Amino acid sequence: MSDTVQFSVDEGLARLTLNRPTRLNAFGSDLAHAWRDATAEATSRDDVRAIILDATGPAFCAGGDVIEMASTMGDGSPLTELAGVINEGIRSLTESAIPVVAAAHGTTAGGGLGILLSTDYAVVGSRSKIGSLYANIGLTPDLSVSAQLADAVGSRRALQLVLQDRLLSAEEALEWGLVAEIVMGADAEDEASRVRARAEEVARFWLAGAAAAYGQAKRLVRSQPSRSFPEQLAEEARSIGAAFGTPDARARVAAFAAASAKRAR
C-alpha cells in the first residue's frame, strides 16, 4: 500500500490518514489506489469496529489533483477511470456496518466534499472551510457529491453550494448539517491536533459502547434509499431481532431493565 494513505489498527479502531500534504491531499493516481485498498481492508477486517479518517498537512482534502490532470490526461477517459477507483473506496465506507468519523481540519473542497460526506460523523476546526468549487475549473461534481450532498443539506442548499464558488465557514457547515462538531485551537496546527483528538474520542465512545449496534444503526440509515418504506420497516424489525439475540445486547438490556426496576421502587 502506498504511503499516500497511512493505515493502522489499534484495539478495534482503524485510522486512515490521507498523506499527500504538499498537494493538500488532492487525489492523484497513487492516492486513489491507496485509498481504495485501505478502505477495503479497514471495512473487511473482523477486528475493526470503528474508523477515523484524517489527514496530514494544512488541509483535509482538496479533491482531485488538477496539476496532475492538466499534465498527464489528454482527454476525460483517464479521469473517469480514476474517479471509479476512488468511488470504490467511498462505497467501502458508506456500505459498511462500521461507523466512520472524520477529523477534517483545514479546507475541504471539490471531491474532498464527497470524501467528507462518506463519513458518518464529522469534526472540523473553527478555521475550516468547506465547498464545491468544481465549476470554477469547468468540471462537474464527482466522488459522490451529487449523490450525497442534497441528502445531507437539502436540494436548495446543495444547489447553492455547487452553483457558486462559495466556501462555507465551519459555523455555516454546522448550521447546514454538513458537520457535527467544531473544535477551536490556539493556531492552525494546534486546532488540527485538537480536531484529531476529538474525533478519536468519538470513535472510542463507539468502541466502549455497543459498537456493533452503532454499526448496524449506521447501515440502516445509509442503506434506506434502496428500500421502500415497508421494506425498511421489515429490515428494522429483522435487525433489532438479530441484535437482541447477541450476548452483548442481552446483557445490556438486562442491565437496563434491572436499573429501571430499581428506580421504580
From TrEMBL:
GO function terms (MF aspect): catalytic activity
Residues passing through the membrane, by range: none
Full protein name: Enoyl-CoA hydratase/isomerase family protein
Entries under InterPro entries matching the protein: ClpP/crotonase-like_dom_sf, Enoyl-CoA_hydra/iso
Domain of life from the UniProt record: Bacteria
Organism: Microbacterium tenebrionis
A Pfam match: ECH_1
Biological process terms in GO annotation: fatty acid beta-oxidation
